[in-house]
Amino acid sequence: MKDFKNKVVVITGGATGIGFGLAKRFGKEGAIIRIAGLRENRLQEAVDILTATGVTASYQICDVTKEVDLIALEQSTRTLYGSVDVLVNNAGISGVRKSIFDISQAEIMDLLNVNYFGVWNGIRIFGKQMIAAGTSCAIYNVGSENSFFNAVVNAHYISGKCAILGLTKSLRDEAPNFMEIGLIIPGFVFTEIGPEKFMKEGMSPDEFADRLLPQMKAGQFYLVGHSYNMVRITEEYEEVKAAFDKYAPRYEGDEKYDVKILGERRRKR
Predict the structure, then answer these.
(1) CATH number of the domain that 167 lies in?
(2) Which domain range does residue 34 map to?
(3) How many domains does the chain have?
(4) What is the pLDDT of residues 197-210, one digit of tens each?
(5) Is the residue at 1 inside a domain?
(6) Cα(24)–Cα(41) distance, rounded to whole angstroms?
(7) For residue 77, is pLDDT > 80?
């Protein structure tokens, strides 16, 4: 979207960190801000800061793991402002820190219910209504550098962020032309998701948000901010490429096994 002026922007997990950084940045563009989260005191503080700078903003308590909460958020936003133009699926947690071999399925699901299914819930509930409206709109999902390489030792968190990459790419394939889709890829950003003594070494949320907005206006899918990430991503790519070069090198006619080509052929029949 080239212009966010007067657009209604809903941000889950919008009271702190990247979500609040984006709320302020969208607000500077003249957007109407609706933030959601679980801690009412932090939501109120965030709205007070936004409104003090002249931004039209409000909040609603919302648990993204509960479909009923997201339905209420979507409906109340439309009642207040008439539309939802932009959704930022930002709410997330870091979960417990345990080894792959020690963590329970319940602990894994506690994280995935927020970081993965919370995003999917937002896509389903808001996305259907945005498509029905038929006007220019956008959905941005917050992934991570961990969507591409392991930056931390936290398997269920990494697994969830890898899943967000696949989900967002699939969403891009299914979305109508008037709906822009973007994957936000934070590197190390100072948020409350981890211990302050460690997290404070990261990029500020405001700086990260400043880097994102021009990319959103340009319609980019991968929304990036940390240049050194490419060193790690290239390392991952080179490892995969080396395996293929040695054990499955290209040869004439090898496309006959390509699933994407086969799928496209079937759809044309």
Answers:
(1) 3.40.50.720
(2) 8-226
(3) 1
(4) 888 999 999 999 99
(5) no
(6) 18
(7) yes
